[in-house]
Description:
Elements: H1 4-14, H2 27-46, H3 48-52, H4 61-86, H5 92-100, H6 118-135, H7 144-172, H8 176-195, H9 207-212, H10 220-238, E1 248-250, E2 255-257, H11 263-273, H12 277-290, H13 292-310
Antiparallel strand pairs: 1-2
Helix pairs in contact: 2-4, 4-7, 6-7, 6-8, 6-10
Phenylacetyl coenzyme A (FAQ) binds next to helix 2, helix 6 and helix 9.
Amino acid sequence: MTTDAEARFDELIAADSRIEPRDWMPDAYRKTLIRQISQHAHSEIIGMQPEGNWITRAPSLKRKAILMAKVQDEAGHGLYLYSAAQTLGITRDEMTEQLITGRAKYSSIFNYPAPTWADMGAIGWLVDGAAICNQVPLCRASYGPYGRAMVRICKEESFHQRQGFEILLTLMQGTPAQREMAQDAVNRWYWPSLMMFGPPDDQSPNSAQSTAWKIKRFSNDELRQRFLGMLVPQAEILGITLPDENLRWNDETGQYDMSEIDWTEFFEVLAGRGPMNTERVRARREAHENGEWVREAAAAYARKQAAKAVA
Ligand code: FAQ
């Protein structure tokens, strides 16, 4: 039998309204949101590492300032998203614990290394580009705190994507060695960036329910295609080759034909066996342990202020 609360929830979803933290919601809806939002938050936090690695080696003061601002934005996105997840009843400590013990998922993309400066360009162009394609529809996600967080995050991601494009454009206008470096970085990040959208639709166990709940608005494959449509003309402007000899527009299907993605690689990375999985989680765990004194000091300060307010 449907209760009044359930009927109200269904009505809100059907009307494209928002579910807010105080509203009744099915346990499975709460659980799936905690899963997706916490994974998303972890991705932002772990995603600081490949670029953080280049802050001290950026080729100019201006590049260093821009990269630092970008990495700080990612920290901000992570904190926003952790806060959104907390409204669903999970604590920040629980989420952190899941991440540093290697039990939580985060985006597969951050388990690849960033060995050259051109990787900063490829990450901005491809990784942030994929993030925008995936996240713009999430601004309309049915859960209020998630959708609202996405609006600000997407604005910042589009700046990030442009700065990546601009790094690659500068390299492509440089020496043959710089052009080669840019092409090499794109060759390495292209396929993993296509994997960011998740498994193919017929192997995506969460899609049907998340779409019915209007958390997801488009399927993994639809968004992957939208991303390709954005990349192809931009690659032409850059003078960069997308590393897929079978990539071409198909008039009949109205979308791009492409080679099969190496899903074995994707599932290996998800299972913790990507090139950088161990290192990424180790670095996060170490940073958390090294930050213990800061958390203690902040808590002591808060206690002192609270005692003063009472006195
Ligand atoms: N990596 O049934 P589906 C960024 C998992 S952007 C790892 O299709 P769903 C910005 C999935 O969780 C990156 N795991 O799942 C930035 C599920 O496992 P579970 C973060 C993946 O949820 C840029 C299983 O596979 N963005 O950080 C991946 O319906 C530059 C089955 O998959 C978001 O998180 C993957 N790529 O669709 C920062 C966006 N794909 O949980 C720094 C929000 C799938 O059942 C620098 N998330 N899995 O054990 C989403 O839109 C969705 O969760 C999808 C997956 C589309 C990622």
